[in-house]
Fold each of these.
Amino acid sequence: MKSWREKIIEYGTLFLVFLTPFICFGNLYSSYSTSKTFFFYAAVQVIFAFWLYQSYVDSSYRFSKKDWLILAPFLGYVLWLTISGIFGADFEMSFWSILERGTGLLSLYHLTVFLLVIASLIKKNGFVNYGYKLIGWFIGGSAVLLTSVWLGNEGFNLPLNILEKSKGGGLMGNSSLTATVLLFSFFFSIFLLTVKEISKKYKIFLSLFLVLTIFSPLFVSLFGAISARGALLGIGAGGVFFIFAYLALSKKKITRIGGLSLIFLSLLASIFVWQKVMNPETSLNEKFKEYVGENRLIFWDISKKTLKENPLFGFGPENYRVAQQKFIDPHIYEISNSIEVWSDRAHNVIFDIGVAGGYPAIILYITFLLSIFYGIYVAFREGKITRTQAGILSSLVVAYFFQNLFVFDSLMSLISLMILAG
């Protein structure tokens, strides 16, 4: 029988992942983001206090040395960004961030605590007993968010003030940021559809959620233009990777070698294509400018100059604006680029992290993602998840990383990532 403290910890995390995607208090400044940030902070602090005490009185909530080793890349990443913030251009900005973003060091510390709590609960209760619940409640919250997208200004355009200003993103206020959350929910839904213990009625709900997600105004829109091309391409990249991962996890040696070879070749091909996109003398570079706009390339060039000047620490978290002011490119003011002249993000996860913490932060971040792959593989090897499920979760990592090459993280996307990492 669980104690009342244990119930507060468990159901606290479940309500947190359910409510955060769509919670929005219209009377707050930048309400789409601040509502979620303040709610997340408060909920995590309460849950963490109970978890600390419960870990003290019950050793089953504590991590082993092996567990800490798996968590080390992310903890190292947070530590390095803290150091970079201290030695960066503006520590106050690095720590607090701005209200519109809420992704500074303070948020990273709360995300770290959140990760520790849910990882501890999965360790204590098992992935089936708690992990499925956590994913299910998150999908439930995402379904409410998805409904707000359909009813918002790029959907049925319901005459509600909070939706009319949502920029296609429903109750998150940004179509790209909402698409990232729905990307996680999309793959999580497919994952749960493969679970035998899930009821038929819930699988019908999941199937409906998948269809409504794909045909929403964000993706294969029935209302006109696609708002979240990066996330849609990410889903496609994840789908291709699923085939490679499924082959790589085969018991047959020849099939396994073939799958691993395809993963390696796809990695080389991706690097080759990326180099062509970044090279201004190639046709791929011109096509990218035509399809996405030259401003992205200008933002990325600013990041490269920042890394060249300060490869160890960058300018500190949340200080991309400082880099842009220092390395401003006059071409950004041209008519074709003037839609987004000033930005606080590079719109590329690698360049954003590079500006925030230099090359060490990039290495630690990639190591963190690799540790997720390792955790998925260990779970598969120990029989906790099937080959298909391991492929789905691995594909989610790839889809998330791919779409993040063209956008940036929000608090909600990082919460989603913590759920996967946990």
Amino acid sequence: MAAVQTETLVDRAAAVLSARRLADADTPAMLMVSGGSDSTALAYIACELRERGALGQLAMLHVNHRLRGEDADEDARFVAQLAELLDVPLFSCEIDIAGEAQRTGENVEAVARRERYLAANEALESLCLHAATPLADGRILTAHTADDRVESFYMRSIVGTGPGGFRAMKYRNGPVVRPLLDASREELRAYIAERERDGAPVACDDAGCLWREDATNAHTDRFRAYVRHEIVPRAKERNPQLLEVLGRTMNLIADEDDMLEDMVDGLMAGHVEALGDEYDAGCVLAPAFGAEPLPLRRRAVMRALQLMLGRDARVETASVEAVLAAFDDEAGGKPRSGYVANIQGDLAVSANKRGVRIEPMSAYRAESAGRSRYDRLQSDSSAMASGSHAPTDFDAPHQASVLRCHRAMRLNATVLSNTCASSQ
């Protein structure tokens, strides 16, 4: 394990926060701490950053997923010791992740991630209230490293990804900030070991370890563990500087991704309108939307669907393509009148000369029923005026494409403890 100068690592974290305008001395920061080496290092580094004036008031959050029995309980005890050692308030809660996954039919890891961030946002709200700071100014700090980012890059290379996916991880995503994204896991472990050698206060578990190890991280039947232990080591054999090289590559991708997202902001403002105050009720894409460059349209549709479904929902590629297909590229991008598609399980896409509408299927059916009654009355009136009393049948819009996709359900699952307990 290579030695790392403590000051250098903390300097780099401070530089990331400053250069990317992620936080400052007035920023309350909720540290997500599992007890592993990365998050343990984050706790120590964040305290040094606070002393330097690079961060504001701190608190820690530990979530016990109740997946690993006594080991999980020992993780919680270790984090409690760490918080007491550093004199940082601790929020802790337990969540029955396995039970929740069984109830919803979702992947355990996806449920665990969602519940962690629900708890983190709740804890951050409490911290900001205590610090008399607007919630929008608070941050959730995670210990994601350069290793995590490279692993995500390879995972997405294997299963595929959408626009911007190969940037792998953002330094900031909403309130979530990743100040250690340029540091390696090896550097963070060396930093903790150096603290102990220098006589600085460190937490230890019952076995004398400076951090907790999750044995399941070595199980290569899990996708990330497979990439971590089978693919990344082989890639490093060909290029020992893999983390730095891929990190630079992903930052180049991120720069271009940010530029495209800024362009999408303009496209959304000019050609996409929500059907209500928020996107929950759906949206309408103006006819001129279809004439915009395809890469921007694809990103805009992805964003609109994400706003409708919720940040944690998975937007299917087939759903994006179904919305784009509502515009006729051979006709200059005009909407295909009569086009109807079913996406994400319960969203309807319909097109006419006024644009393309995306809305819950129930709203579409209600509106279609209303149109049907209106058209039938109009048809009856025309028939009576012409002397013919036989009503004509309503001609339903032609369903050009019907796509049945799994719906990623938005769920506000209940955390077992009604409120996270804070220990000062």
Amino acid sequence: MLSAMELLSDVAAISRFGKPGRLDIDRLREEAEKRTGLKDWGQVPIFLEAQEKLVSAINDNARLSNFGYRLAKKNIRDWLANYLRCVSRGLQPNKHPKTNSGLGNPLFLIGWARTGSTLLHRLLAQVEAFRSPAFWELAYAHAEGTEYVRRNSAEKDLKLIKLLAPDALKIHPIDVDAADECHYLMEPLFLSPQYCLFFNIPDYWSWLMGLSEDDISVPFRLYREMLGPFCGDQEDKNWLSKTLIHLFFCPVLGNVFPTSNVVWLRRNPSDAIPSFCSLLYSYRRIYSKEVDPLEIGTFVREVYQRADSYVARAFETIPPSRMMVVEFEDLVADPVATVNAICKRFGYSLSEGDRSRISFELDQATKNHRAFKHNYNLSDYGLSPMDLGTRMKLPNNFGSPSSTNSFVADNKLRAEHASR
């Protein structure tokens, strides 16, 4: 276990030098080469371009604090080192994967942030039919060292976040041994909206939004190749994945994972968006003392407005039989029934042991939820309900919420939730 003094020592070590400078991508690459002993940056130009775009945007847009500059420098150097390791291991964004072994019929939980996806993910992770790695496995998937060393490093990261942004882990819980978001696997690729959660980088965001579907399929295909070591030859397992970042990759999801099933989570944007804005404010304060809530509101509104078109493309490439809608109100009214409905619809086995673990996990989640009151308001971020409209619409050919493509909780349960 890490003591508070050890964590404070790490903070001091990161921030002990002068004022923030400019990040130098060439210098950072050299340091990554020296750390790993590797020099091959691969044959995929868009990854190198993405590295340069991100670093440039952080320099020009992010208004880093002294500590934020040092932490960003450390993180980018680590991501570059991990990218070199990926190349050295022969990982390539193959258009035609060699095997589907271990992935089974992957289940992706997609949708806007703050829609109950973390709760649903953790409950589904209790089902033996799924493979959903823990935070420490994902955050240090590409790093060297034993399991003990990598888990200890992940635990250290969480304690540091708790020290620097105590509300962040209450708003969005992360536990070192619990299933977590697989966007950590993609950090070394520098090609994802995830960096915009921690930095105000409109230049990088604009570049990212200008990429074609062919462009964004490259990192997603490489992400698929990264799953091999997690899955091995476990033919009875199905990959379980959840992250907001999958929204960005929705247009290519069906092509990269042709046997995937998708659960689409929805919630009233007037509730989901200010909650997400509040989380981003906590994250960005780690790196900058000049965090503008209005900038966050503008950014989140644009992301939400773009999300409709991303999801629409997923519906074009994934058969309706492989998709299901879950409304936030139904999920919180009866989480266990939601899990049962998902497994039944897609044919995933569910044992009594699974049900027992799900019940225990739900009890723990309920206790943690009651212990923290998350306060947020649209107006704090310069937004109003008129800016957001309604929750994402179902495609015309998908069916109504009462169809077999959707899960609707018992009306009595919904009424009980509405009265809370």
Amino acid sequence: MDEYNPLRAQVREQTAALDDLTRRIRDNQEELDWFDGFDEADMGAKIAAAEDRVRVRDVEVAAAHSEVVAARAKVSDCKKRAIALQKRAQSKKDGQIGLSPLGSILGSLGDLRATRKLKREVTALLAVVKTAEDAERAVTQKRDQAEAEANGLREELARHAAFDPAAAHALLAELTTDAESRTAALDGLTERVTALDDQLAGPLPELISKKRELSDFEGRLARALEYQSRLDATSDKTARWRIHKEREDDLGHTPLRDVIREAQRAIPPLQRAITKLEERVRDIVLDHTRDIRKLVIDGNNLCYVDRDVVGLWPLREVLAHVDGQVEVRVFFDDSIVETLNLVCADQVYKMLPDARIRIAPPGTRADEEILDAADEPGAYVLSNDRFTDFPDKPAVRESRVLRHQIDDGRIKVRGLQLDTVYRTSL
């Protein structure tokens, strides 16, 4: 359906924009609520307490670090004693040359026991060092957390001091106004989507059905012609039998010539019907998707049904229908005074007090002024005039002229989705 109703894509875009606005409004309101509920005295107390915790952690970190330094010093001392023992053992070994083997062995055993003792002591001290380092890291992490908490509180206090509530309220008002405007636009767009879907409910399913039917006939015709070509290309009985069997499984038992004849007869009227339906669908979509930002009305043109004068009543219905939606200008030829049996042009202004009216100078027509007023994109003319004298005017060249129909007491403007009975009295 999106292929035929492009307004749905606009609805998705507008919905996404409105969702973003809603999020910004919520965030802005939360900021204002935070500011209004902020207690500076309470925050000062929280910061002081956090700073006290940092100082306590500083003392703990210093104490833990002292433990690490002391443990490392013990390890260093133990290692020095081990080195001294090794040197002394080597000196003994050098001085035992010529002594009895038993004396050498006893001396070596004593040094070995001393060395092993020192190794055990070093291992134990290294474990103490690791425990002290782990404790220092843990208390340092707690100290960093306390500092981060204190910094966060200070930043929040600074943010409160720098916060501009007047600017926040102004932004909230701006966002809210924008959201209300977009909501109204989205509601209108959604109504247009529904209106277009309703208008397409008749021709679109028929168009889709006709296209499907055409596709089926074209497919059958193509396959039938292919089978016929293959049959014409061979005289082998077995091969022809296989082709006939394949054709029967695909197209049934109807003779190929009948399948071809049926498709050839069915396809042209289907194509014509599809073309008409596509034009109808295209016109419906165009009528409902025009981006009309300005409407320039040929006032005289709306005062007649054929040659009969019906006055300003149809025009009033058009003005009421588009009121507040688009910019509107109404142009009259100077003959409008005579047409409405008025005394002077001022009476026209009084009869349409809320409309922007322009009456052409005596002896002139308003056609060129009408077209000039609708020269920018988004500006449309409402008139049944063909403006054949002005083919190069943008509104004529770009088909930005809307037609109307007035009969049986109704005013219909398909391009404005207007179809209503017009009043004949105030």
